[in-house]
C-alpha cells in the first residue's frame, strides 16, 4: 500500500516542471480590457462540463454591475462545449484554456464529503493554474474566485489592496461562531492582518484558508513548487485537516517557501445563511460583500420562486443576462 506523505515534511526545491496552457482570448477582450486594469484580474474556472456556466455568467455580470476596474478572466478546460466558450467570451475579457492539474487524493472521512467532492476533487487543483506566470504574467495580482459566487459590492480596493497571498482563515463551522465546532487556532482576525507561517502550520491539524477566494501574484517559482509538492505524494491530502485538498495544497506551497498570508475578512467570502459568522469585533460592517453559494444547493438548481433574498438577487442578475443575450438562456434552463 502507498503511504501518504505529510504535507509539512517537504522543503522548498527549485522545480522546473511546467504546465503549458493555450490562451483563447475573447473577441471582445481588446475593447473591454482597455477599460479594466491590466495589473489586477478576477479569475474563475469552469471545468469538466457546462454545469457551472450559469454561475460563471452571473459572477461576471455581478462584477460588471458593481463597476469593477479589474479585468475578468475565465479559465476553461478542453471539455467545455464550444457554445459555452463562445458565450463566456462575451462576458469575460479573456477566456483561456488551461490543462487539468490532477492528482489522486486520500479517501474522505465521511459519506457526505464523498457525495459532495468525490467527482471533482482530484481535478480541484486546476484552479491554481492562475499562479502560472507564463499565462498570467500580464497581471500583478489575480484574485481566484469560485464560479458559484456573487459580488454584491465593489471590493476592488479592499481585496487587491492586500499583499498576496491572501485567504480567509476563518470558518462558520469553527469556534467561536459554532460553540461545539472545530478548534480555531487563528482566533478572530481583522481584514488584512498577517497570518504567519507558524500559525498556518498549526492549522494543518484543524483547518486552513478557504479556497473559494484567494489573492495571489503569478509566480513561476511558486507554481513549480506547488506542482512538486503535489507530484511528490502518491495520494495527496491529510484527513487530519478539515480543509479541502486544494486549500491544503496552496497553503502547503507558501508555507514551504516560508511565506505568510493576509487574512480576507469573511464579509468578502460569506457562506449563504451563516450570519453569525459575520459578527466579528473591529470590522464595523456585517453586510456580505461577496456571497458564496457553497455545497450542492446552487441557485441554478433552485426555483425562481425560492424566497431566500440572495437566491432572488442571483436570479435577478440571471434574468438581466438572458434579457441582454437570449443565447444564454439554455445555460439557466438545463437540469443536471
From TrEMBL:
InterPro entries for this protein: GNT1/Glycosyltrans_8, Nucleotide-diphossugar_trans
Protein name: Uncharacterized protein
Species annotation: Medioppia subpectinata
Amino acid at each position: 500500500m502507498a503511504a501518504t506523505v505529510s504535507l509539512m515534511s517537504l522543503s522548498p526545491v527549485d522545480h522546473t516542471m511546467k504546465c503549458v496552457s493555450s490562451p483563447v482570448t475573447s473577441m471582445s477582450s481588446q475593447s473591454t480590457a482597455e477599460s479594466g486594469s491590466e495589473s489586477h484580474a478576477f479569475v474563475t474556472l469552469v471545468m469538466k462540463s457546462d454545469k457551472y456556466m450559469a454561475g460563471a455568467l452571473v459572477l461576471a455580470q455581478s462584477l460588471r454591475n458593481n463597476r469593477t476596474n479589474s479585468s475578468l478572466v475565465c479559465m476553461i478546460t478542453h471539455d467545455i462545449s464550444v457554445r459555452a466558450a463562445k458565450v463566456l467570451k462575451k462576458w469575460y475579457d479573456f477566456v483561456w484554456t488551461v490543462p487539468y492539474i490532477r492528482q489522486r487524493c486520500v479517501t474522505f472521512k465521511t459519506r457526505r464529503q464523498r457525495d459532495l467532492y468525490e467527482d471533482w476533487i482530484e481535478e480541484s487543483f486546476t484552479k491554481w493554474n492562475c499562479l502560472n506566470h507564463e499565462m498570467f504574467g500580464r497581471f500583478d495580482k489575480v484574485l481566484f474566485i469560485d464560479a458559484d459566487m456573487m459580488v454584491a459590492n465593489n471590493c476592488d480596493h479592499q481585496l487587491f489592496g492586500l499583499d498576496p497571498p491572501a485567504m480567509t482563515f476563518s470558518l462558520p463551522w469553527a469556534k467561536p461562531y459554532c460553540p461545539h465546532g472545530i478548534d480555531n487556532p487563528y482566533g478572530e482576525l481583522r481584514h488584512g492582518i498577517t497570518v504567519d507561517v507558524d500559525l498556518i502550520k498549526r492549522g494543518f491539524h484543524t483547518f486552513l484558508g478557504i479556497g473559494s477566494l484567494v489573492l495571489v501574484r503569478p509566480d513561476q517559482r511558486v507554481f513549480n513548487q506547488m506542482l512538486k509538492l503535489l507530484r511528490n505524494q502518491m495520494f495527496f491530502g491529510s484527513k487530519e485537516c478539515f480543509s479541502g485538498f486544494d486549500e491544503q495544497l496552496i497553503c502547503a506551497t507558501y508555507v514551504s517557501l516560508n511565506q505568510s498570508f493576509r487574512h480576507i475578512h469573511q464579509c468578502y467570502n460569506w457562506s449563504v445563511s451563516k450570519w453569525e459568522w459575520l459578527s466579528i469585533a473591529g470590522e464595523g460592517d456585517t453586510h456580505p460583500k461577496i456571497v458564496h453559494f457553497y455545497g450542492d444547493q446552487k441557485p441554478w438548481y433552485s426555483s425562481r420562486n425560492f424566497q431566500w433574498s440572495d437566491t432572488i438577487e442571483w436570479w435577478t442578475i440571471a434574468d438581466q443576462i438572458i434579457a441582454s443575450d437570449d443565447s444564454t438562456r439554455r445555460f439557466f434552463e438545463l437540469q443536471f
